[in-house]
Design brief:
Elements lengths: L13 E2 H8 L3 H9 L6 E2 L5 E3 L1 H15 L4 H47 L3
Length: 121
């Protein structure tokens, strides 16, 4: 159903004017991000830029870092490193959970084995 796209944070929903207004930035700032290759908005059939919610979040974060004195290139690198770190933490947490599950299964198997040895009936 077409309405399902409203929940998709990657769906290119917002035109440049809407995006600029929501973010409180001039359209030229959005164009500069596109030109620099830091944000690649989708294009409508007419060639107009279309931004997703995830892209708007990234632009807001880029703008905040730029306001703190970072260049846009370094701000983009910071965001990429943060995303990589978050992904690595997620993988670490998943590996820990798998390890803990394997340990529980091992301990259960040992208990069952020891119980079988004590009571061979």
């Amino acid at each position: 159903m077409a309405l399902d796209r409203l929940d998709d944070p990657d769906h290119p929903t917002y035109g440049m004017g809407q995006a600029a207004e929501l973010l409180g930035v001039p359209p030229a700032f959005l164009r500069s991000l596109d030109t620099a290759g830091l944000i690649s908005p989708a294009r409508s059939d007419g060639g107009h830029r279309r931004y997703s919610r995830n892209q708007l979040d990234r632009i807001a974060a880029l703008r905040a870092l730029a306001d703190d004195g970072h260049t846009l290139a370094s701000a983009s690198e910071i965001l990429d490193l943060r995303a990589s770190l978050d992904a690595a933490r997620g993988e670490r947490d998943e590996a820990r959970e798998e390890r803990d599950t394997a340990r529980r299964e091992r301990d259960t198997a040992r208990e069952e084995r020891d119980e079988a040895r004590r009571d061979p009936s």
